What we know:
Layout: H1 2-30, E1 39-44, E2 48-68, E3 74-79, E4 86-87, E5 92-96, H2 99-134, H3 140-172, E6 175-177, E7 182-184, E8 194-195, E9 204-219, H4 220-232, E10 236-237, E11 245-248, E12 260-264, E13 274-281, E14 293-306, E15 308-310, E16 315-316, E17 322-327, E18 333-337, E19 339-344, E20 347-352, E21 359-363, E22 375-378, H5 381-390
Parallel strand pairs: 1-22
Antiparallel strand pairs: 1-21, 2-9, 2-14, 3-5, 3-8, 4-7, 5-6, 7-9, 9-13, 10-14, 11-14, 12-13, 15-20, 16-17, 17-18, 19-20
Helix pairs in contact: 2-3
Amino acid sequence: MRRSCRMARLRASLIATTFFLSASGLAFSQEGGAMPPPAVAVIELKGKDVPVVNELPGRIAATRISEVRARVSGILQERVFEQGATVKKDDVLYRIDPRLFKVRVASAEAALQRAKSIQDNARLQLERQKSLRDRNIASGIDYDTAAVNLAQATADVASAEAGLDEAKINLEYTEVRAPISGVIGAALVTEGALVTADGTSNLALIQQVDPVYADFTQSAQELLNLKRAVAAGTLASTAPGEARVELVFDDGSLYAEPGKLLFANANVDSNTGQVTLRAEFPNASGDLLPGMYVRVRIEQAVRHDAFTIPQRAVIRDDTGQAQVYVLGAENTAELRKVTLGQASGSEWLVEGGLKQGETVIVDGVQKVQPGAKVAPEAWKPAEAANDATQQPAKTSE
Length: 397
């Protein structure tokens, strides 16, 4: 009896619930309650100047390289510098045994003193002969001989002075100094070694690494295509000295300091068909080392009245064809095939399929169907970036 009462109550409850849902659905449909159009973020295409950027392989090189060599022969007595340290121009790097060169300086000084004494005596003889000639006591021949002796003595003094200067210079050369400022490498000789002035081996190597060069290559055909596009008016050439040059490391990060383009070689490598270009970068922190492989990102031209779209607005079909949703009449979404150019940051350059002034859906494309109505709102890049950074990271199960 009780069980049958419970079953009756359950049936009544189910009937009441079904009736309520049916009534609610009827009321919703009577009020015209179709699903509202999805909210989407849109942008209007506007022409702007877009740089033509190429990323090319390159290698870092020192701006100056100097081989440290001995300029006099002798026994190496001391190494002063620390290997791998930064040295300044004229810093002492090595010392050669100076004793022999000090003796040569002393000998040159004595030779100069002797020459000056002979010069003084020749001058006195000339003055005496002049006095005797004026009194008609001596002949003119003796006077001429005295004048020649003085001139010879003066020349001997000049020669002795030059010899003394040479001896002093050679004595200074016993201190081997840095010819340039830069980073010095390993010591290539040790104390006690005999070094010679006419030797072919160097004592150390100094490289100036602030600033540094970045030598990179580009296909000669690519350069020719750029020149043709500039000549045809499709592209505009960058002003001299205004081409932005950046370094990209292997991990994709950018070097903090921009560089400047110095030149492009006038010849093409016959083996590779490449043209070598050179840029200069500041390197106060010493992060860029000679021989390091990098990628150089360079602006080589400017495309006027071009427009870009965010990469998030692009979808692709099964064949990989790029497509975007364009806002049509009465806020309906129209699927459009587009031709994309190079990527610049988070944007694509549009080369075909869209026109200036059209409105493209950026956010919410996954909720849109072709021909369906949407509720457009202006896209705000800053808010989109904040939403992306505030999303919680997914953890693997």
